[in-house]
Amino acid sequence: xxxxxxxxxxxxxxxxxxxxxxxxxxxxxxxxxxxxxxxxxxxxxxxxxxxxxxxxxxxxxxxxxxxxxxxxxxxxxxxxxxxxxxxxxxxxxxxxxxxxxxxxxxxxxxxxxxxxxxxxxxxxxxxxxxxxxxxxxxxxxxxxxxxxxxxxxxxxxxxxxxxxxxxxxxxxxxxxxxxxxxxxxxxxxxxxx
Length: 193
Ligand SMILES: [Fe+2]
Ligand SMILES: [Fe+2]
What we know:
By secondary structure, the chain is mainly alpha-helical. The chain is about 85% helix and about 0% strand. The protein has a single domain (about 10-190), classed as Ferritin, core subunit, four-helix bundle (Ferritin), CATH 1.20.1260. The longest helix is centred in the first third of the chain and has 31 residues, at about 10-40. The two termini are about 20 Å apart. It binds fe (ii) ion (2 copies).
């Protein structure tokens, strides 16, 4: 009996859930890459160009790592049209001012980090998924630090040092609303694994 329940735990249903979760993570990474690409077009100073190029390479690598995980399941990524970033974008719009765009990036990165940290704490996560989670999590520290510093630097140079914190507070409020919608859904998927 124990054997049959073990089989059920790795059966097609559980694989569908894995596919869905990895597809959502992949979608968030790709949309995150899009934000970094936008910044690359806006922030022309040497430091930003160097750091954004590395940052963009990291984010697209993260999207690839989730895609690779999906390939290992013998599947293809699901199209995600109602994920975290789409919901956030609908409420927040796409900011034009660099300080606001940087603030949005910080909020998005922090959410990704929290999501991955929660996943890492779960029991029974496949070893390969743990590897990917550890790898993507490792990069988020420097991403958040440098983006935050750059935003403060620009806001101060423009004589509006408070702009970054105000923008951050606004996007954090929207992030909490969006997360309130998604958290239970994501938890129920995790329970089904
Ligand atoms: Fe990432
Ligand atoms: Fe990141």
